[in-house]
């Protein structure tokens, strides 16, 4: 069953398209009727993953224009599938004859060949970062749904290279004010300098993306396998370059004691609150209504100018220097992708939770 | 859609049962016909998660006896669903009237109430660790399938408290020779001492489980969402107490450069090899045939004797001391659960990969 | 993907078990919390498919006792999987050595061998009618959910042999008053006589089952593939012995004109009504709130005493006379199975429809 | 879960698009790598459902040109999703202001309003026959896969109005030689005359489509719910206008005796054969390798010129005469749609059957 390009159960996205094909796109199914939606809503999100916005990302000019071609009528969703297409205008010209002959380290060139017998080698084909366009378009719609019930996501670069933000300087409004998605403006200059050094040396670095979900309803997540944390782990780990996912204290919890890690409860002014949120808002796989916190580890950009050892089609060991200008860091462009996958997962879990109680069934069908 | 108790697409397990109901169990669907299978095959694995094997785990005597009651005929699987049941013999007596009145910190008591309006409070009900019996039984069958094509899993405690194994002393044969699933016998005494101290203080600790998959075929994992790493992340994160999952270098990759993290290729004696395996055997979500490495962060046992602050049904803030003897560490009993989920995921991905090429279709239907 | 023993998306049943194994059973997942449920609720439905209730059905004494062993706490469903088991008490003794050597015409003996390489030949194994016990148990729960929102199913034998009921004599209360599930008591004697003749001649007959759904909410059914009629067609056709399914006018519609078949609308006392219901309550795959009507064609019982030609293991052409007493008609016992599958499908579609409008999402999450 | 626009498990199609949107399309996921595929392969099939080919179908000129925009590289499928788009060139101009104000009898106007609160009224929106373009495009690919292992489908009009073909004159080569898809050329003139009469009277008629599958492998179909016949019933019933589906003898089996309906076996020249094929090639939901036969009842075209009674937005009872020229019969254009859905289902079941035996797993992974 090679059908891995579909995500979700009650709210689903199906992405398609290769880096250098005619277009990439996504079909969103399960969007309720009556949501206000325009191409601009999608465009705003797509622009957040646009390359070329700074010296730190690839200067290829991509004109990622979103076209909604179904599922919307007179400005509102109709309840039927929403098809969104983005044409690959700037992808045609490049020469990929060299890349076709060898396997780039850290890329999926080898594994696609192994699985399918051959590959579309132009720009990575299906394994290209352009595949995430469909995710971000789907995320745009998911976030519109979430905003209707006041759920809010905040996603940003926590660490780039080995430079982390200072939580005391955290300012949500800064995230999209700099090209690095850093919520701490005091770190911007330092990180920029680090990246310029990496570029100079033909190298790259990794980092950590953090996502916070505020005002999430309690009760989201299905026991036993489709827990909210498990679903988030899958959806975020499905993004290329992500090598780890953690919730709340995550790997740090492994080094704490129970007394340190348990979140105590108390009633304060008749409201049940937790003294801490080490669990990251999820217990037994189900949201407790407090903030959900997720972190994802992003590997360094594999395309680097430095000399690398690899093999070619003729089974020779060769040295390569990958041409072109590449982002020395994936994190800033991946921030919106992580946020999109989290949003899509949340909508799916919201819808899946609707029949958890008989009272809900009666509320919708007896009133 | 509260249907979260089913895992897998081509090879599925559906678990059911509460800690203090009559039984717990699992239905495995998608097991091919013609596999040798007996209850003993399942029992061997269930015994690995048995409590009471040492002073470090709960002394409740559980008699977890596996009964295969369908899907096997004359010692072989028939291709139809395999139902396995384990009766809850020792669960009836205890008094849960107190636990019913308050929310235990770090447990799912609160969230089940939030989601469903009430809960089966006896021993955690569905959120109890006993739910993993079905996973381990399913894993036993998955591992039998994997062994038929020589795939081998090795899973163990990498870190307990803050004590990690020394990879130089790694000995696979030690894993099931000590009650802590430590592959480094030099660490056993030190960890035991640490756990005894925790018990004395009414506290607990977390740790890290590591799983290695050897001899995995290349090509497993479906782009784009159902990647091998994404599926593993979900299946492992779906285990209670797991707060983070990483593949290969994982979170460490976030602090490396591209030059450090990329795995270079070369041909050695006509065999394509990688100089390193920082990617943990997966590129673009697809296995490359080298060892897959996964780590999971386990939180400290939430049930501790130390005084904790919480709230009760009458909305009072209270102090509690959880009675009974509890494991000061979840890791050793969770090792076989992690291995089971990895095995189940692998079989699912093996089956899903079978139609990746037209050649495979022809091989099975034209010969 | 041999995983065909699971049905439903938002409300699912997973059946397991062979005719002559230790037990048969079902796991129901997706049942909302807070529904009153006892084993007796299930038993009442199981008794409707019980054999041995008359001379017309097999005299094997089956003691089909339902045990609910998970998912219910203090008389209410908890939202977690409901596991129901029925032990096969009376199945052990019989000698199946002969049946193992040849293929019974009209049974699945041959195809199971073809698919799996061998088969559990005892009483048909998985392809036995006993497999429907799980469906009926699942249907019992589905019907309880439906009754909470006043949806009502009426299912009965429309035709047995070539004798059909007279709609003018239709009396719903008669259905379970006779062993043939005939809603027309004037036909009972005539059908009984016909069946006695068939028994005498070692033969059997087929028939037609009809199901009506009253008080169904409008809007059920998902375009385009998961239409209500398509889902019903699948769930009913999945019952052994069913060879055809139709909705509303069904095959008769094929011989009508548009003017005859279209249902005209009008407002009567401010209520939108249809002058006729040829469509059987479904347009574009979506319920319109009027009565849904479905009919299923049931083939004649394949196990007959008359001499039949078949082949044995040694590849000889042989004549057989199937021993034992068998129902000369499947219809009466299949009535409750059809009703169960329709009920399960309806609950699934009810739950799947809950997020069709943004207003519903807001109603459940903003109030 | 309003996600009904996706069909299949191991080979899936996701259709999208409205009659009068910018385009309609389909994403096919699960197509193996290495299949030769061009837009022309799809175009040939799309042309079979093209309107305007005779006086009997709507004269709207539709320019249904297939564009494959992903999943194919250098003439071969790559194993990744195949996106096919067909622009709605001729749909823009018409005035739908009137149709927006009332409910057309026999159409989905009312039920879409009921489900979603409003509808895209232009040409039926999502419930338009144009939705089947995606199915036919998916079917084109499915049929290419089937032909690689020599499976062949033959689909045609069996009955139009009340005129049926004479099986003695059956000639497969005639099917696409006349505009009515009749395999019996002696019936063409008679049917044409009947249709002209209907047009004259502003009326329409229904009919029956028959599909035969030759050279199907044995073993296809998963017990218990995902039987081959159940899956076919769903996929065919999901086509608009289909009101009934039957396999083999179908509804006729209901009126036969066991002795008449059972298919006897014998060995002839060492080959196992059946004396008859009343079961239509499926026993216990699994193919036995003989011809599979399916029939579908098609309702008469609901759009007719004759005066019909309905209601309008202002809740008035009104008389309407639907404008424009409409097909007096749906059958000929639906033939290729039925064939497509059968082909898609078959490929899905072929792939799902691949792991039915351990031997198959070993064959693919150990060789």
UniProtKB/TrEMBL annotation, chains A, B, C, D:
PROSITE patterns associated with the record: CHORISMATE_SYNTHASE_1, CHORISMATE_SYNTHASE_2
GO CC annotations on file: cytosol
Superkingdom per UniProt: Bacteria
Family named by the database record: Belongs to the chorismate synthase family.
Requisite cofactors: FMNH2
Keyword ATP-binding tagged: no
Keywords recorded for this protein, A-Z: Amino-acid biosynthesis, Aromatic amino acid biosynthesis, FAD, Flavoprotein, FMN, Lyase, Membrane, NADP, Transmembrane, Transmembrane helix
Function: This reaction introduces a second double bond into the aromatic ring system.
Binding sites annotated in the UniProt record for NADP(+): 49
Protein name: Chorismate synthase
SUPFAM superfamilies noted in UniProt: Chorismate synthase, AroC
EC number: 4.2.3.5
Family matches, as HAMAP family: Chorismate_synth
Enzyme class, broadest EC rank: lyase
Co-factor binding comment: Reduced FMN (FMNH(2)).
Transmembrane segments: 330-351
Any Gene Ontology biological process: aromatic amino acid family biosynthetic process
One Pfam match: Chorismate_synt
Pathway: Metabolic intermediate biosynthesis; chorismate biosynthesis; chorismate from D-erythrose 4-phosphate and phosphoenolpyruvate: step 7/7
Positions that bind FMN: 126-128, 284, 299-303, 325
């Amino acid at each position: 069953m090679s059908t891995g390009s579909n995500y979700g159960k009650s709210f689903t996205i199906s992405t398609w398209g290769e880096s250098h094909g005619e277009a990439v796109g996504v079909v969103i199914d399960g969007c309720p009727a009556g949501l206000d939606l325009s191409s601009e809503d999608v465009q705003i999100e797509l622009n957040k993953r646009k390359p070329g916005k700074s010296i730190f990302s690839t200067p290829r000019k991509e004109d990622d224009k979103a076209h909604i071609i179904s599922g919307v009528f007179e400005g509102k969703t109709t309840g039927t599938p929403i098809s969104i297409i983005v044409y690959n205008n700037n992808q045609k010209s490049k020469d990929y004859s060299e890349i076709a002959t060898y396997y780039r380290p850290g890329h999926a060139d080898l594994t696609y060949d192994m699985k399918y017998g051959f590959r579309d080698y132009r720009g990575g084909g299906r394994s290209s970062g352009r595949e995430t366009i469909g995710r971000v378009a789907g995320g745009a719609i998911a976030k519109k749904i979430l905003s209707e019930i006041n759920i809010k996501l905040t996603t940003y670069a926590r660490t780039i290279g080995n430079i982390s933000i200072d939580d005391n300087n955290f300012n949500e409004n800064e995230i999209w004010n700099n090209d690095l998605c850093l919520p701490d403006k005091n770190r911007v200059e330092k990180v920029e300098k680090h990246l310029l050094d990496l570029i100079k040396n033909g190298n790259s670095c990794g980092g950590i993306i953090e996502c916070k979900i505020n005002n999430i309803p309690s009760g989201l997540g299905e026991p036993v396998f489709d827990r909210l944390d498990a679903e988030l782990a899958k959806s975020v780990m499905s993004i290329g370059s992500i090598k780890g996912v953690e919730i709340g204290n995550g790997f740090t919890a492994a080094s704490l004691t129970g007394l340190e890690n348990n979140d105590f409860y108390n009633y304060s002014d008749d409201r049940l609150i937790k003294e801490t949120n080490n669990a990251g808002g999820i217990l037994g796989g189900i949201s407790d209504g407090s903030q959900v916190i997720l972190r994802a580890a992003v590997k360094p950009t594999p395309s680097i100018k430095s000399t690398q050892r690899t093999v070619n089609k003729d089974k020779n060991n060769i040295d390569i220097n990958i041409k072109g200008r590449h982002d020395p860091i994936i994190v800033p462009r991946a921030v919106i992708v992580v946020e999109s996958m989290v949003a899509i997962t949340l909508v799916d879990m919201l819808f899946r939770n609707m029949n958890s109680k008989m009272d809900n069934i009666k509320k919708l069908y007896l009133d």
